[in-house]
Amino acid sequence: MALDLLHSAETPFYWVGAFTTTSFLLWLLYKLITGIRIWVIGNGDLLSPKLGKWAVVTGATDGIGKSYAEELARRGFALMLISRSQERLDDVSQSLKSMYKVETKTIAVDFGGADIYPKIEAGLEGLEIGVLVNNVGISYSYPEFYLNIPDLENFITTMINVNITSVCHMTRLVLPRMVQRSKGVILNISSASGMYPVPLLTVYSASKAFVDFFSRGLHTEYKCKGIIIQSVLPFFVATKMTKIRKPTLDKPTPDRYVAAEVQTVGLEDQTNGYFPHAFMGWWSAVFAPIQLVLYLGARMNKAQRGGYLRRRKLR
Ligand SMILES: NC(=O)c1ccc[n+]([C@@H]2O[C@H](COP(=O)([O-])OP(=O)(O)OC[C@H]3O[C@@H](n4cnc5c(N)ncnc54)[C@H](OP(=O)(O)O)[C@@H]3O)[C@@H](O)[C@H]2O)c1
């Protein structure tokens, strides 16, 4: 009797198994093909001055922003560089002009303030802008519990202005003319810290989650008008912000990171931008439960906080 039952179930089991295996193999093939398309073939010359003569980069004098400025100049864009220090802007501007023979302009503003946008609007007037890189961002000087953050009131205002307000207002200034011309690319530099809450870097992490949501929502609103808005979520990159001096495969130089990231534009709306980072993002999303991510993040940041406070006491 039991044997008969088993025999009659054999055929359905066979087909369920065959269907599951085929679906899995097709999914794997699809992942392989899209992976090759993104990480090996890339998007060709999508990021070119055909989008518009000018590229605008915020936070353009160091780290990831400076690398975007160089990459876009190498691709033939004229560059509008925006950062705080006029001296450093002049240095980057000179080096782009002499290396890539492109036109450059600069605007010196502090994104920590909210009253700077009329000055930026005046500086951008009349420019045909093909690419905007909303890169400027600040983090904590060391991981800290929310109520222990030094000068908390100012800290909150400054971080929100630099990391969030800048992205909204720069987009407000640039997007209308992109929409008129039915083309343009906006790259918003969020962070892998925006993929999950990061304890002791809570305000930074939340501000980067804002940038990610803002970008993905806006992309859906404007893609039918020919505009690409991409959310970029890097893990660690060796810059002044992270104080990483020795780049490694998973903590690349900003040049290496940006060279990989620009190939993903138009292929991914939300990207970790660099293959080892994409692997880390995929692995943590699939295998790491959120409670574990929160626990490990808190543990790592408490250890860093302890180290920082001990070193500061010793000095
Ligand atoms: N590095 C990483 O591992 C990493 C990972 C994930 C996401 N990100 C994001 O990537 C972006 C760039 O980070 P980064 O590591 O390249 O930073 P960085 O090396 O510290 O460079 C920051 C740039 O922004 C400018 N800047 C800073 N504060 C400013 C302000 N208040 N007003 C105007 N300009 C200002 C700086 O120039 P001046 O000081 O001359 O103004 C500099 O050009 C940020 O949004 C960051 O959150 C970085």
TrEMBL record:
Keywords: Endoplasmic reticulum, Lipid biosynthesis, Lipid metabolism, Membrane, NADP, Oxidoreductase, Steroid biosynthesis, Transmembrane, Transmembrane helix. Its main location: endoplasmic reticulum. It is a multi-pass membrane protein. Belongs to the short-chain dehydrogenases/reductases (SDR) family. 17-beta-HSD 3 subfamily. Pathway: Steroid biosynthesis; estrogen biosynthesis; Lipid metabolism; fatty acid biosynthesis. One of its GO terms (biological process) is steroid biosynthetic process. CDD domains: 17beta-HSD1_like_SDR_c. The chain crosses the membrane at residues 12-30, 185-206, 279-298. Catalyzes the second of the four reactions of the long-chain fatty acids elongation cycle. This endoplasmic reticulum-bound enzymatic process, allows the addition of two carbons to the chain of long- and very long-chain fatty acids/VLCFAs per cycle. This enzyme has a 3-ketoacyl-CoA reductase activity, reducing 3-ketoacyl-CoA to 3-hydroxyacyl-CoA, within each cycle of fatty acid elongation. Thereby, it may participate in the production of VLCFAs of different chain lengths that are involved in multiple biological processes as precursors of membrane lipids and lipid mediators. InterPro entries: NAD(P)-bd_dom_sf, Sc_DH/Rdtase_CS, SDR_fam, VLCFA-Steroid_DH. It comes from the Eukaryota. PROSITE patterns: ADH_SHORT. It catalyses: 17beta-estradiol + NAD(+) = estrone + NADH + H(+); 17beta-estradiol + NADP(+) = estrone + NADPH + H(+); a very-long-chain (3R)-3-hydroxyacyl-CoA + NADP(+) = a very-long-chain 3-oxoacyl-CoA + NADPH + H(+). It is an enzyme of class 1 (oxidoreductase). Its EC number is 1.1.1.330, 1.1.1.62. GO terms for cellular component: endoplasmic reticulum membrane. The lineage of its organism: Eukaryota, Metazoa, Chordata, Craniata, Vertebrata. It is found in: Endoplasmic reticulum membrane. Gene3D superfamilies: NAD(P)-binding Rossmann-like Domain. Pfam families: adh_short (PF00106). It comes from Alosa alosa (allis shad). This is 3-ketoacyl-CoA reductase. GO terms for molecular function: estradiol 17-beta-dehydrogenase [NAD(P)+] activity; very-long-chain 3-oxoacyl-CoA reductase activity.
